[in-house]
Write a structure and sequence with these properties.
alpha/beta; D-Maltodextrin-Binding Protein, domain 2; about 35% helix; about 20% strand; globular; signal
């Protein structure tokens, strides 16, 4: 069985009732009038990512809702990211996982890091990741080719960042052997750039990635454009990749940065019960505002876009939810 990267974070079940609570509070803790609450599982494990990334924050926020509102025992796993999460799901070590669509495509096809197809279905497309090539503001790096000879973190092993980095370098004609490579997750990459032990790092994540926001307040940063590889990536790896823009002001940038983007999908094993999947999707939408209060990317969850989960089908329970809510 795959061992998750990093520590497991066991969240205790929130205590819903006490003698001092009012009847209204008790109704809120038990799920109130949420008709799907009884169909949610008693326990749930969510595979996320590094602690300074959005996957982890999103997973923590969802866990709080499931625990506080419905009394579910939720474990949030700190992991290497997309590829790691899909292995955990396949091995039965996780029930719900965040993943980028490019890693998901490899998983369902049984290629790349996956020896056989993974039986996985989608709850929702949640938000998009944007490719980041992060350097100090004063760096001489202006394009990917300038990385040759430099100390570069290419992402944690079995992460979506590592997968994208490999493809971006290949599309740019840059051999990883020409770099001084470190395979660091987002938290470790941030620490290393802050300490000056690397010159640049790749990251695929949502906007604004919390750890990068914090780093940009300490160290002036710049993002190197990646738009030049997008069309080639689409030809070689499918149209899950698209052109994207990191807006001016994000991480202190002085102008928009043209880059690549890829959707993120919340997935579950194909064998999850229809009612459980329905309840999880209903929870995402019913508590979107609460989730977004902790993770701004959660505000991007949209019933119209969430059904586009290529390269996998929606779980039958998710599809029933969208039909019930007229999407």
């Amino acid at each position: 069985m795959t061992t998750p990267t990093g520590r497991h974070v066991r969240r205790a079940v929130a205590a819903c009732a006490s003698l001092a609570l009012t009847a209204a509070a008790l109704a809120g803790c038990s799920g109130g009038q949420d008709s799907w609450a009884a169909d949610l599982p008693d326990e749930l494990t969510i595979a996320t990512g590094g602690t300074t990334g959005i996957y982890y924050g999103y997973g923590q926020a969802l866990a709080e809702v499931l625990e506080d509102r419905y009394g579910i025992d939720v474990e949030v796993l700190e992991t290497g990211g997309s590829v790691d999460n899909l292995h955990l799901l396949d091995d039965g070590a996780a029930d719900v996982a965040f993943t980028a669509a490019d890693a998901l495509e490899d998983a369902v096809a049984g290629r790349g890091d996956f020896d056989a197809p993974v039986d996985v279905q989608a709850l929702a497309r949640v938000y998009d990741d944007f490719g980041h090539l992060v350097v100090p503001a004063g760096s001489d790096v202006e394009e990917i080719a300038d990385l040759r000879g430099l100390r570069v973190s290419t992402g944690a092993p079995r992460s979506g960042t590592a997968l994208i980095t490999e493809r971006v370098l290949a599309a740019s004609g840059v051999d990883a052997a020409d770099l001084q490579v470190s395979e660091l997750g987002i938290t470790e990459s941030i620490d290393a750039l802050r300490a000056g032990t690397i010159d640049a790092f790749f990251w695929s994540g949502g906007l604004r990635t919390p750890g990068l926001v914090e780093l940009s307040q300490e160290v002036p940063l710049r993002l190197v454009p990646l738009e030049g590889v997008v069309d080639q990536l689409r030809v070689q790896h499918g149209d899950g990749y698209r052109h994207g823009v990191v807006p001016e002001g994000v991480y202190g940038s002085a102008a928009d940065v043209e880059t690549l983007a890829v959707p993120n999908v919340l997935v579950v094993p194909g064998g999850m019960s229809e009612d459980a999947a329905y309840g999880l999707v209903a929870t995402l939408f019913a508590h979107r505002a609460t989730l977004a209060g902790q993770v701004p990317s959660a505000a991007l969850l949209d019933r119209t876009r969430s059904v586009y989960t290529t390269p996998v089908d929606l779980h039958a329970g998710a599809l029933r939810y969208y039909r019930d809510t007229k999407v």
